[in-house]
Amino acid sequence: MSLNPQEASLKIKFVIIGGGIAGLACSFALRNSGHEVVVVEKHDGEEKTEGCVRSPPNMTRIMAKWPGMPSFLQTHATRCTGLSFRSSRTSEPVGFMKFHERIMDELQAEFLVIQHDDLRRQLHSLCMDAGVAFKRGKAVEIVKSSNGVDITLEGGEILHGTMVVGADGHNSFVRSLVMDGEIEPEHIVSGQVVNISIPTDVIQQHEDLRSLCKDNEFTIWMGADSSITGTLDAKMKMFNLSICSPSPSHSIDGDMYENHDFSYLRPFDLSGYDPRLQKLIRLGHGCRPTVHKVFAQEDILGLNGSIVLVGDAAHSILIHGSHNSSMAVEDAVTLGRLFSHLSHLKQIPVLTETYEELRQSRTNAARVSEYQALVQISLPPGTLQEDRDAALRLTLDQMFEDFENCESSDLLVEAWEQYLILFSHDAVEAVDNWWSKWSFTIKA
Q1: Are the CB atoms for 40 and 16 separated by under 8 Å?
Q2: What is the pLDDT along the chain (444 residues), one digit of tens a residue?
Q3: Radius of gyration (Cα) for the chain, nearest Å?
Q4: Contacts of 94 (CB under 8 A, 6+ apart)
Q5: Distance CA 79, CA 98 (A)
Q6: Which end of the chain has the lower number of beta carbons within 10 A, N or C?
Q7: Buried b vs exposed e over 142-157: b needs ≥16 C-beta within 10 Å?
Q8: Parallel, antiparallel, or unpaired for β 36-41 and 13-17?
Q9: Measuring CA to CA, which residue among 346, 341, 328 is closest to residue 35?
Q10: Which of 324, 224, 240 is nearest to 280 (CA)?
């Protein structure tokens, strides 16, 4: 899989709205295809974010091909050996889904966890080295012009580009220009998440908490109507917790760049969790809450193909999940690869429609899978929870290597079938397959 295609023979100007993971990945991919790229970001880039990003194999494979990323991942990413499922009440193990080496070798990449701020800064550096331009500001209007798109910033400055990429997150302004009206409430399922980071040197001062923080494990405490995930960073300086619920209750959405006090935890009933875990949460120096609406989004193109959405602006995959960032990175390389073939302005509508076609089914599948997973690890007491735990306990007594000699009903087989569909996808290969089949229809 090559991520350095030939540069487009026709180079155009992209204005990227949003400088988070999605915007930076997209900026690099488009710049790598030879295009001029300007990123508009309302923050100055100096603010520190907290929490972690999960990089499943389909994302790790892509990033490992980018300049400087292999060494970065070596020093800044935690390799997860598996998913550890625990009782919320006692923290006792309920199940363990091992990422077996044989299968991960076949996937040619690892499941990694990276500090959000580390990855954001690395991608920013990658973009700077590639020649991406950055503009601090907030877009307030985007209109079609005779030869492209005009973007008006707060304060009145106007930028001009051939195309706009909306990478401005789950509360996207650009998305409102793509969709026809508001999404109907009955089509929305909401989730909420609060991220908390605790310094490990603080945890080490409490002997009763040390066993909660396992090296190289992604830990999931399964509660009633909520769950908590936890993982150490690569340098073992920070333990990251995410408190998640498929029910939004009365949560307040927050800015990921701002720390908030623990009053934002009130919508979560944590009384049933292990007292040690409750104590661990209170050792954090604040929290960062997000309310995320999950819905099926039909359109990711606007202004007759002059606007394209990526990342959270394009698809409402749970922010705390395993595939939120990976879908954004796949969006980026899909768009970049397609536009590496641009040779005439008349090809733009076809390339953008192809982007939409290639990404919609993929991201919809990830959205459904991620939300169903959150529901499963947040089941209330009852038969469904008991059946889930009974099935998970089977994983404590067997080591899964491959599908041979496994019954079709085996929990591990079913789980791995879902994982492998998402993990094995190659976004670049999907574009190359399309191009080899259909390029003759658009070549000038």
Answers
A1: yes
A2: 445 567 999 999 999 999 999 999 999 999 999 999 999 999 876 777 778 899 999 999 999 999 999 999 999 999 998 899 999 999 999 998 888 888 888 889 999 999 999 999 999 999 999 999 999 999 999 999 988 999 999 999 999 999 999 999 988 899 888 876 555 444 445 567 788 889 999 999 999 998 888 777 899 999 998 999 999 888 888 899 988 888 765 555 555 566 777 777 877 888 999 999 999 999 987 777 777 677 667 788 888 889 999 999 998 888 778 899 999 999 999 999 999 999 999 999 999 999 999 999 899 889 888 888 888 899 999 999 998 898 888 888 755 455 445 554 455 566 667 778 889 999 999 999 999 999 888 875
A3: 22
A4: 85, 86, 87, 222, 389, 392, 393
A5: 12
A6: C
A7: beeeeebbbbebeeee
A8: parallel
A9: 341
A10: 240
DSSP string, 106-164: HHTS--EEEEHHHHHHHHHHHHHHHT-EEEE--EEEEEEETTEEEEEETTS-EEEESEE
Cα–Cα distance measured from residue 195 to residue 172, given in angstroms and rounded to the nearest whole number? 21
Domain covering 13-79+112-184+296-373+421-441: architecture:
3-Layer(bba) Sandwich (3.50)
Measuring CA to CA, which residue among 259, 281, 261 is closest to residue 270? 281
Half-sphere exposure of 72 (CA within 13 A, CB side): 20
Domain boundaries, the chain: 13-79+112-184+296-373+421-441
Longest dimension (CA), the chain: 69
DSSP label at residue 403: S
Locate 18 and state its tokens. 């949003």
Amino acid at 61: R
Q: Which two tokens stand for residue 293?
A: 């609406």
Return the exposure string of 370-385: e unless at least 16 CB atoms fall within 10 Å of the residue's CB, then b. Answer: bbebbbebbbeeeeeb
pTM assigned to the model: 0.91
| DSSP symbols for 260-296 | B-GGGGTTS--TTS-HHHHHHHHTSS-BEEEEEEEE-
Contact (CB, 8 A) for 411 and 83: no
Identify whether the C-beta of residue 66 lies closer than 8 Å to the C-beta of residue 28.
yes
Q: Where are the alpha helices (DSSP H) in 348-426?
A: 348-376, 383-393, 411-423
3-state secondary structure of 442: coil
